[in-house]
Each structure stands twice: as structure tokens, then as C-alpha cells.
Amino acid sequence: MAAPHRKSLVWFAAALLTLSVGAAGPIHAQTQIIPAIPEPDQVDNLKELFRRLLACWQPPQHASAAIDITVLVSFDRGGNILGHPKITYESAQATDNDRLLYRVAVMEALQRCTPVPFTEGMGGATAGRPFAIQFKTRKRQPQPTEKRAWLSQKIL
């Protein structure tokens, strides 16, 4: 007699389950695609990355000449420096002491700015890729504003 009672209980549970699924519709995992909106302090593009890194730059105060210096650096997904940054360019007129001061200033700037708060997408896109960052302190010569006589189209 125990078997018919158990059988009716299974049928009752199956009917209850069918009614609950039928009333609510089929059970599907609902997935919504929500675009990732970067937080205001997160880096989401290369322009913002370079802006942040250059904002940390403080040229050395005791250098005898202003020079330009370029560093090659890579980041991991979390915004930490990957490997060792490499100086790839220094102005030719720099003395050895100035070069040393500028190298230290570049490394201090990178330490101040890292880890860079990348968004998830930016972290994946930049991970392991090298970036050449130019730190410029030399004054550029202004473009001449006068017109050269041989460039004018005036006929005398």
C-alpha cells in the first residue's frame, strides 16, 4: 500500500511543477547586455593614459639643461608596470649628470602614476603592449610669422 501513495505523491509534484512553469512561462536565464561605463577615475582610452602619465611628470629642478627623454613601458591588466621600463631616447646636448637626473625623474613619475586604474576592456587591450612615452621639457623654436619674399605670389 505504500507504493500507490508514493506514486500519487510523485504525480502531484509533477503536476504542481508543470503548472508553476506553465504559469510563469519557460524558465530561461535572462541575460542583459549592459554596456560598461567607466568610473570617472578609470582610464578607458590611450589619450587618457598618456594624459595621466604626463600629469605625473615633474622635471628635475637642478638640471643644467632641459632635455627630452622617451621611455618604453608596458603594463599588465591591473595597471602595474610589466618588466623594466627602458629609456629609448635622450637629447644629445645632455650631460651625464642631467641624463641621470632625468632618468630618476621619469622613474619617479611612473611610480607615482602606477597602478593605472584601467577599465576591464582597456586593461585587456593594453596588457603587455609597449608604449613609448615622451617627456618633453625643451623649448621649441617658434615658427616664423614673417613671410619670405620668395614665397609671396605678388607680381611687381
Short description:
Helices cover 37% and strands 15% of the residues. It is of the alpha+beta class.
Entry keywords:
three-stranded antiparallel beta sheet; alpha+beta; about 160 residues; Fusion Protein Consisting Of Minor Coat Protein, Glycine Rich Linker, Tola, And A His Tag, Chain: A, Domain 2
Secondary-structure topology with pairs:
Elements: H1 2-24, H2 46-55, E1 69-75, E2 81-90, H3 96-113, H4 120-126, E3 130-135
Antiparallel strand pairs: 1-2, 1-3
Give a structural overview:
The chain is α+β, with helices and mostly antiparallel strands. The protein has a domain at 46-135: Fusion Protein Consisting Of Minor Coat Protein, Glycine Rich Linker, Tola, And A His Tag, Chain: A, Domain 2 (2-Layer Sandwich), CATH 3.30.1150. The protein has four helices and three strands; from the N terminus they run H-H-E-E-H-H-E. It has helices at 2-24, 46-55, 96-113, 120-126; strands spanning 69-75, 81-90, 130-135. It has a three-stranded antiparallel beta sheet with strand order 2-1-3, with helices on one face. Strand 1 and strand 2 (81-90) form a beta hairpin. The longest helix is centred in the first third of the chain and has 23 residues, at 2-24.
Rg, Å, rounded: 32 Å
Helix content: 25-40%
Total count of strands: 3
The CATH class name of the domain at 46-135 reads Alpha Beta
